[in-house]
Design goal:
By secondary structure, this protein is an alpha/beta fold. It is built from 10 helices and 23 strands. It is globular, with a radius of gyration of 27 Å. The termini are far apart.
């Protein structure tokens, strides 16, 4: 048979192309979390994983140690190792050897915190170029100019949705500087700054948040399905999808009407009506489990110290259900991470759209779920803006919990007064508190925002006085009081603090049904 040189050249080219493609596919591939400038949890056995060719040998080593760990990719090409880390320090290199070698540079060993929630966690240090509500924190120009902290790093997870758990996220590690900090989650940054300055440790932040999202979006579907109180969330979602085409037509008409009314009301001094809510659709970030699948599941099992959480506004309409949902979500994350992660969260600030019940649900979570902590923000809210700009206080108060509970600062007062018990004393009620922090204080005048009721459940404005570490509450209009409420309204202005300057949490001593009771 006659030799055809053209066919031979094509065959050789295809063979080389096949070999090159095979070699590229066989290279070690890493999740986005593993990249230059990253922070790994110090003094831990950290989880490291990735992909390679099935059966390919993979060796991982960190320059902080002479020892390496080895494994083999499984039939699907996935691999995972546990790599011991030493005390905080760096910069180091992290090396991966398979059919090729991959090296990550400027890696620090320090403290890693996962930061998640809705818009108040996402809220950046500097003004956003794409969002009207993210106006930057108080004194943002000065804060940004002074933010030269190369040992603070942040990985911001790109916002994505998914019907099923995903293997990876999009994002990259940024070293904190005046040029980069403007895009950092403000709450997370001010938390990290406090931890770094108090301990000297590098801090890595993984920011995974999305505005306007309810807790069920961040919770695994199986968890919602397994709980009778949470299954209505899934049923409601299915019904919303079915009704979506008709609901969207109604929404469009209502939105057009609202826009006209809002325009006409400008300058009248009247409070505008809330905008109609857009109906849920298959691509909504409010859909159950969508954000867990796309923005939390791919982070598992990255080794971290704990979790910071700022969310709840989008669950206010079903605050009673949040009593079950929020603890279930915390347990869910701890289960998939196989670790009792410290979980510190922010109680929702006073706002005209937020019921007191959502703050109560958060308070109950702190009181019933182990290894959690709550920051009270009644003194730094904005009744007309759901996004208060004073994030410095929020970040610092979250750091107080971590410093006291995780970093050995035993003398740090980390919580404001928390209601403990009551005693009826004739026509008065005496309240006791935990976390009095050196003593109770009425800031700027007599105690305010206390109400009192008898068995008729009719609450009357009350007088209140600090006596030692207790508060005595009474009203001339209530002769046989049985219950007290404190700061129990959408926009309270309470002034009960402890000597450390931390505000008391809103509370009620009764368990009478409130607005969202039983609403699932």
């Amino acid at each position: 048979m006659k030799h055809n040189p053209r066919v031979t050249r094509v065959s050789v080219f295809l063979l080389l192309l096949l070999c090159a493609s095979s070699q590229l596919w066989a290279q070690v591939k890493l999740p986005a979390l593993f990249a230059d400038n990253m922070v790994l949890q110090q003094k831990s056995d950290v989880a490291i994983w990735g992909w390679a060719a099935p059966g390919e040998a993979v060796e991982v080593s960190g320059s902080w140690s002479r020892k390496s760990v080895k494994t083999t990719a499984n039939a699907q090409g996935a691999w995972q190792v546990t790599l011991p880390t030493t005390k905080a320090g760096g910069p180091y290199t992290l090396t991966f050897k398979g059919s090729t070698t991959l090296e990550l540079r400027n890696v620090l060993l320090g403290e890693v915190w996962l930061c998640s929630g809705q818009s108040n966690m996402f809220f950046p240090v500097g003004p956003s170029k794409t969002s009207t509500w993210a106006k930057g924190v108080v004194n943002h120009q000065q804060e940004m100019a002074q933010a030269n902290f190369p040992q603070i790093r942040m990985f911001t997870v790109e916002q994505q949705l998914a019907d099923e758990p995903q293997p990876d996220v999009r994002g990259n590690w940024q070293v904190c500087s005046p040029q980069t900090v403007g895009d950092f989650s403000a709450v997370a940054f001010f938390f990290a700054r406090e931890i770094h300055q108090e301990t000297g440790l590098p801090v890595g932040l993984i920011s995974s948040s999305w505005g306007g999202t309810p807790a069920e979006s961040w919770t695994q579907k199986e968890v919602l399905e397994a709980n009778a109180d949470l299954r209505p969330i899934l049923e409601r979602y299915k019904q919303a999808l079915t009704a979506y085409p008709a609901a969207m037509k109604t929404y469009t008409a209502e939105l057009e009407k609202w826009q006209k009314e809002a325009e006409a009301a400008k300058g009248s001094g009247q409070e505008p009506k809330p905008a109609p809510k857009k109906p849920t659709n298959p691509t909504s970030n409010k859909a159950p489990s969508q954000l867990y699948n796309a923005m939390i599941a791919p982070l598992v099992p990255f080794t971290s110290k704990g979790v910071l959480w700022y969310q709840g506004e989008s669950n206010s309409d079903r605050a009673y259900q949040y009593r079950t949902l929020f603890p279930a979500m915390i347990a869910n994350w701890r289960t998939v991470w196989k670790k009792d992660l410290p979980f510190y969260f922010v109680q929702i600030t006073p706002h005209r759209g937020q019921r007191p019940e959502i703050r109560e649900a958060q308070l109950l979570t702190m009181q019933t779920v182990a290894n959690t902590g709550m920051v009270v923000t009644t003194d730094v809210g904005d009744s007309t803006d759901i996004h208060p700009r004073n994030k410095q206080v929020v970040g610092k108060r979250l750091a107080l919990w971590a410093l006291a509970k995780d970093y050995g600062k035993k003398k740090v007062v980390y919580s404001g007064p928390i209601y403990k018990s009551l005693t009826q004393e004739g026509d008065r009620i005496r309240l006791t508190f935990d976390h009095v922090g050196g003593g109770l204080v009425a800031k700027d005048g007599p105690l305010a925002e206390f109400t009192i009721a008898g068995a008729d459940q009719k609450f009357m404005p009350a007088q209140a006085r600090i006596e030692g570490n207790t508060v005595v509450v009474w009203s001339d209009g209530v002769k046989n009081p049985v219950a007290v409420r404190f700061a129990w309204k959408k926009v309270p202005l309470p002034n009960l603090f402890n000597q450390a300057g931390l505000p008391a949490s809103p509370f009620r001593t009764d368990t009478w049904p409130a607005d969202t009771y039983g609403k699932l």
